[in-house]
Write the structure tokens for this entry.
Amino acid sequence: MKTLLLLLLLPFACINGQILTERDRADVIDEVLADRFNNLLPTLMDRTDIDMWVVISREYNEDPVIKTMLPSTWLNARRRTILVFYRNKEENTIEKLAVARYNVGKNIISAWDKEKQPDQWARLLEIIEERNPAKIGLNYSDDFGLADGIVKTDYEAFISKLSPAQQAKVVSAQDLAVGWLETRTALEMKYFEQLVDVTHDIIKDAFSYKVIVPGVTTTDDVVWYLRQLVTDMGLETWFHPTVDIQRSEEKLESHIVSFSNRPEGKVIQKGDLLHCDFGITYLRLNTDCQQHAYVLKDGEKELPAFLSKAFADGNRVQDVLASNFKTGKTGNEILLKSLKEAKAEGLVPSIYTHPLGLYGHAAGPTIGMWDSQGGVPGTGDYKLYENTAYAIELNTTVTIPEWNKDIRIMLEEAGFWGEDGFRYVSGRQEEILIVK
């Protein structure tokens, strides 16, 4: 099978044609960053009522937020990198300063001359005193790991340098950090749509007779085909893909098996219902997608009607969830209302939708977890804002009399919530793919 896979790992022209070179990617990343710093960040600072945001990080131990702020040619912070964003709302200006030896790309200007002021912390204090902010936001948070990026050493060092009056101004920048991470600009969405298209195309390629030979190919073979193809395209996966099987003679596994203890290396047979969980990273954005495929049995020319009906139930749960997206509603409110409505229709849903964007499991309102269907304290209490993206991840259990068992339709697609309501970033799967 390994020899067969090597023969199959040929360039996928229709996908590769959409992928930018490294140099062109760098130009896009920096263009997007400039737009976010100049147009998005001031709005977020006003919304969260923080006029100074101090982000402190050290090389190879980066704050998750600062990693999203570095220019394309910076793969890591350097030494101790301190960024200061100061918003003067009255003058409608925003300063982007680096208390570092270098400019941080073209957007953030170095504000520290070590020859004039040898002490980096002292220079930071000068910047603070010169601007006299009302609030100083630092990245610490009880609920959001991605907004909890300042390490103990840097926090204690910074606080120890402040006067009691300045210390009183220090607040958690949780909502600002989450807002920065979760908000998608119009420019980003243009590229995000392309990334979702590429993700869908790769799945279609993997779930085809180009890759799958019933009775020979294993689920692991397909997983590693996905990994290798993504690498050959110059992209990355942000998590190890999975491929699993549901079939008539095997009982439905529990949720824990579906999510973490899948059997490895099962041989794919005709009549199998396949499922994958797959996501890629490109231009600092991430996708997260789950789709199904069916391997036709001898004599079958199309998908069995009972599987089409089961899949429609999965789409219906998606519809119910999307209909409950409302700006200002918390993730827990959206979850509970959606579950109630879906169950009232006779469906058996489980919803575990998460924000998606600069990280795969990103910051923002958590809308259920597979093992927390009553709501998620903390992250589930965060409210829905416009211009945010989500992995619409959920499943529904369906009884299949033809197989004398239940199956689980597990779906995940990128969705966007904006001023015009909800939409899928680039469509969703509405029919099970056919391996024929």
